[in-house]
Request: fold
Amino acid sequence: MSTTTYRDTPTKTIDIGGTTFAYRELGTATGVPVIFLNHLAAVLDNWDPRVVDGIAAHRHVVAFDNRGVGASGGKAPDTIAAMARDAIAFISGLGFEQVDLLGFSLGGMVSQEIVKQQPQLVRKLILAGTGPAGGVGIDKVTRVTISDSTKALLTGKDPKENLFFTKTANGKAEAKRFVNRLKERSTDRDKSISISAFRMQLKAIHAWGVQQPADLSTVRQPVFVVNGDDDRMVPTSNSHDMARRFPNAQLKIYPDAGHGGIFQFHDEFVAQASEFLQ
Reply:
């Protein structure tokens, strides 16, 4: 395994039951690995390199494209439970017996499902910009995503500038910096998500938003819940709700920050996440 930066980490593949999964790994070779689970429409190149490199300075980090996403093969599933099963198969395929999970947005929903399906696999969880099953406003993610993406495309912006950041002067400046960091990798870039996979993910998130709330009191693992104070995609109230309902949770809310609060406050987040994962 390479200790290089995320910008230069080669993309690898592994065959899991006849499906090719694309992934990148970096950091130290020892200790419990940290698996990064990504957001709606995201591929490997959508992880903020400052966050990946920051965590990988002390940990073995693995980021991957789930089934049907980016460079991974197969058809993207349309439920969070199926995405979790695929993630578990990928983790097991790499030979890991226990992992920490860093789930952002959709990835945070998948992380909650992983710990429900295979509790012994997970040591600690970081849930960023996400919400519980049946959470407030999650059924409106499709509408917000399409509306903000359309506005962004009409004004020549990356949709994430509207979706992940506040509309204050500070938020807009941080959005530009984030989008520029995502362009630092110039070679071996991932394939964009297909329209069909994007639709499957939207369907899965909508179903997650309208399903019956899960019993979070059964999750004994330590959980770090983190978000910005003005998340328009997955309303911040969900973060407060989860922090109350998990028996062993700590909560961090960043000021003047949105859905992508962990990217806006990447230095602070990396320090807090690294301490939590120790």
